[in-house]
Automatic annotation (TrEMBL):
Name of the protein: tRNA N6-adenosine threonylcarbamoyltransferase
Gene encoding the protein: tsaD
GO cellular component: cytoplasm
Lineage: Bacteria, Pseudomonadati, Spirochaetota, Spirochaetia, Leptospirales
Organism: Leptospira noumeaensis
Family the entry assigns: Belongs to the KAE1 / TsaD family.
EC number assigned by the record: 2.3.1.234
Subcellular location: Cytoplasm
Amino acid sequence: MTYGLGIESSCDETSIAIVRDGKDLLSLKIYSQIDSHSPYRGVVPEIASRAHLEKINSILAEAMDESGIEFSDLDYVAVTSYPGLVGSLMIGAQLARSISLVFGIPIVAVNHLEAHLAVIGLERELPPFPWLGLLLSGGNSSIYLYKGFGDLQILADTRDDSLGEAFDKVSAVLKLPYPGGPYLEAKANVYNPAKAGPNPFPKLLKEDGEDLIRFSYSGLKTAVLYYLKANAENPPLEKISYFFQKTAFELVTRNVRKAIAQTGIRTVVAAGGVLANETLRKQLEKEKERSRFDLFYPGKKIYCTDNGAMVACLGYHLWKQKSFVGLDFKVSPKRNFEQII
Ligand code: KG4
């Protein structure tokens, strides 16, 4: 049996998990900082790193207690080392160094984005590589070519806002709470599509041909703003939310279709905070039937958000490959960090 500890502190969640054999979750603790950041409607780096520092030791103690194992049972400590807020990543990195030093176990440095995709290993046998990794979160709207553990290449990216960011910004103009994704989804869900007229928002990137795969959501955000101004007397929040989602998700499924056509890869793994959205899950399921590919995404919504379990899970596979780092390993805000070290 292999026991691994996963540490996640890249943004606004402090999280620790203990995983057995890369697939059995023994414990997962997450402290969300949302309440500290919501007055600013965004993550404030200084607040984030201070909160990680305050919470990380108690989260570690709770996770170890729940797991029923001892530190001396651990085979590796995995930690998110990039991309993320540097001050926050350093808190997790320092904890990993201490555990490694005291208990003599190797450190596995993990790419946060890759961990989001590999987390499906906690719910099922991993499908064979290569995969198309669709990552939709607060910081990403991208499609990756994922050929094997530690081998992730970007295939498509956003020109401007990420999808999660668009949800958050649009929900701000609709005066919904932060972070806006779940609130906007709830508004969209109560809209009756049977009485829906034409979509007030234009199709995104309609000028793009089949060869060009990219995301862009800032135009949609502006379109929502103008529509809201034009209907300021009685803003139809549910209708706006419904058509915002419809327009935004159409670009997602279109890009998945293009990525499959371009690469011939028919295994799609979708992940990130926005995958908590039920309408998006359904749209992807429909696209799967239409374009005939294998689709995987975390069943449990807790695995969509930032969490230590995904770090411990990917850490296991990297540990098996002996991808260890020394105590002097670095953290980085860059997502192509592995190409520059
Ligand atoms: O992956 P994640 O937890 O962390 C960051 O990237 O920071 O993603 C957070 C993002 C936020 O923008 C949030 O609004 C969005 O995921 N999100 C959702 C839903 N739940 C969270 N977006 C749409 N629908 C949801 N139900």
